[in-house]
Amino acid sequence: MKIVEVHHPLVRHKLGLLREASTAPALFRQVVGEIATLLAYEATADLPLDDTGIETWAGPLTVGRCDQSRITLVPILRAGLGFLPGVQVLLPSAPVSVIGLRRDERTLQPHAYYQRFVEDIAGRTALLIDPMLATAGSAIAAIDALKAAGVTRVKAIFLVSAPEGLRALEARHPDTEVWTAAIDERLNDHGYILPGLGDAGDRIFGTP
Ligand code: URA
């Protein structure tokens, strides 16, 4: 599985701000958005361009155009919503497909309680958006659903990833491409990433 840990100094600086427990939700949201933009910039480096003829002040010219109709952005509810606006800064026309997952208490497997994919999703590249890759249960379930709907390529953007989650994702979906601001040390007994940054959803939405 392709895994890119983005070491850009601005990403590392901003991630340090998020790791500070005292960073308040407003700044936390802003910085999450900034890192999302920087990760999305890296993750879109190989998007194909179409040659398009335009008229310039000096006559006709062929320029490259990125066709956003081949992409869909896929935030995983809830925390993925906090990561989405930063990606939309770069891909404002890409349609958004949403998936919400909760754990089935009987099977302990993630179950989609909400799924609204763009109608013509088959054949698109999905940009999966979630701040934290912990056990990877949600990411795997989301990619299962995307592939079942005909998605052919998945690029995933995670703020912080646990090695356990990356291993689990690779075992199930080795064709996924991952960009992350950090691969942290490990998961604790409650499934939180160490050192991580706590509960990303709570910190983004200001819930206790
Ligand atoms: N989800 C979070 O928000 N934080 C973690 O550390 C793990 C999962």
List keywords for this structure.
208 residues, alpha/beta, eight-stranded mixed sheet, globular, nucleotide-binding, glycosyltransferase activity
Helix content: 25-40%
Label the CATH architecture.
3-Layer(aba) Sandwich
- Unreliable stretches (pLDDT < 50, length at least 5) are none
Question: If helices are DSSP runs of H or I spanning 4 or more residues, what is the number of helices?
Answer: 6
Number of strands: 12
Could you explain the architecture of this structure?
- The chain has about 210 residues and is of the alpha/beta class.
- The protein has one domain: Rossmann fold, CATH 3.40.50.2020.
- Helices cover about 30% and strands about 30% of the residues.
- The chain is built from six helices and twelve strands.
- The strands form three sheets. Strands 1, 4, 5, 6, 7, 8, 9 and 10 form an eight-stranded mixed sheet that branches. Strands 2-3 form a two-stranded antiparallel ribbon. A two-stranded antiparallel sheet has the order 11-12.
- The chain is globular.
- The model has no long low-confidence stretch (mean pLDDT about 95).
- Bound molecules: uracil.
- Uracil binds near residues 132, 191, 193 and 199.
- Uracil (URA) binds near residues 79, 192, 199 and 201.
